[in-house]
Amino acid sequence: MLRRAFSSCGTHLLSLLRCFSSSSHSTFHSKSQNFDAFASFNRMLRMNPLPSIFDFNKLLTSIAKMKHHSTVVSLSHRMDSFGILPDVYSLNILINSFFHLNRVDFAFSVLARFLKLGFQPDNVTFTTLIRGLCFEDEIGDALHLFDKMIGEGFQPNVVTYATLMNGLCKVGNTSAAIRLLRSMEQGNCQANVVAYNTIIDSLCKDTQLTEALNLFSEMIAVGITPDVFTYNSLIHGLCNLCEWKHVKTLMKEMVDRKVMPDVVTFTTMVDAFCKVGKITEAHDVVNTMIQRGIEPNVFTYNALMDGYCLQCKTDEAVKVFNMMVNKGCVPNVWSYNILINVYCKMQRIDKAMYLFEEMCRKELIPDVATYNTLIQGLCHVGRLQDAIAVLHEMVSRGQIPDIVTYRIILDSLCKNRHLDEAMNLLKIIEGSNMDPDIQVYNIVIDGMCGAGEVKAARDLYSNLSSKGLHPNVWTYTIMINGFCRQGLLAEASKLFREMNQNGCSPNDCTYNLIARGFLQNNETLGATQLLEEMRARGFSADVSTTTLLVEMLSNDRLDQSVKQNLSTFLK
Q1: Contact 267/303 with Cβ under 8 angstroms?
Q2: Maximum Cα–Cα distance for the chain, whole Å?
Q3: pLDDT tens, 171-196?
Q4: Are 200 and 233 in contact (CB under 8 A)?
Q5: CA-based end-to-end distance of the chain
Q6: How many whole angstroms separate alpha carbon 486 and alpha carbon 41?
Q7: Cα separation, 224 vs 421, whole angstroms
Q8: Which of 454, 453, 417, 432 is nearest to 2 (CA)?
């Protein structure tokens, strides 16, 4: 039954993976809004004389603002077919829409139309192209285009600079963004609050609070007034470092400057307090924001719920959930995920399933995290068939399982000795567009070793390099343990030395497992050498090893000199 289930699931999954990318834009906009846009366009085409390009641009702009970019492209093509010549503004809208549709090639092809029509690209054209390249993480190309823009005599404005700064910060190159800011200041372009905010936010995320605060002081010194986003970035960074006194000082300064904290400010503090177990302080923040007339939003309530769940206070988390609903704040997918996760951890699977069904009834679409949590919970309590049923439902609802999903199912199959089904699933993973990582193979190798299939495990281990993967400490530890269980101590020793030579240091688990393997096979000399090496590296015997040593010391048949050597490892 399992094999049939996976065969069906695999076929369905692979076909879904193949068609997903081509259909991802098919639901980009609603049919009714599409109809309205085309109806308005058709009315304009029937006018005599035809409206100006300015009027068509207004329509295209409104459609683009609704994020119906495929409609923009379609209507632009129709304008061409009716002989309506675009202007620079029209072409800039088209470039922007192509980028939003992940068609960088088409976006750049529009530049050819500029030349054909005798137009010169303007600052908006270059900024839009740079923004699109940054969105695609093509930061090198974006910098090249920026240099080309300057080389052709165009003067970048503050929006262009800020766009490129944002792209640099997005890929973690904050230092380059700062250099760009300095270059901007040396030129004729004055930085604004957005440019400073972009870099301050990135520095805060990189926990470079000193640099962020210095830049904050600098912007004030040059006459740029910080806004709520500036303060929120700094408060978030300080909260992450538990700098509560500095947060309080910054909050006071914020209010003194007539910048009012918003729901993001307070939610940031609630989340930070909850993460470090300061639930009382988090509640105080919520009460303060309500007193100031700022209603908590779904993210505020989620942070509070998560805080209670971290302390295993599930009933309190449910109270927060109910309070949120009673106050007219609609829970989102993450609200349900928080409770589903805690119920699964408590093995209250039926309660978790009830919440899952409730969110579906409320037309909330469960995400991959929802399904993974449920599948993990079901597998943990031994309900593998139900977990597979949830996997089927996941695929049928259009959610693509990720590598975590497959790891969970693989682990459960292996632990339940369904190795054939596990291997079938591994083939599905290898045949999909996902790249199985070393953890996936560790799970399968461990399952094989646990079932006594050490030769098959060794074969899979030997093929890792051909798959572009390198064994990690757990791969080695699993294989060494498998060899020890089969009494293949020479193989275990060889692999143990090999991992050192390959630059993968054994951890305490590796040492304890191989030492126990030697002890259980009465190779006390080898075990003693391993225990001595383990201790020299700063590791100690774990509970299982200690228990085994105590049992051996109680064995009257064991040589006294051996007992004396082994007893030193219990001190």
Answers
A1: yes
A2: 110
A3: 999 999 999 999 988 877 889 999 99
A4: yes
A5: 53
A6: 76
A7: 63
A8: 417
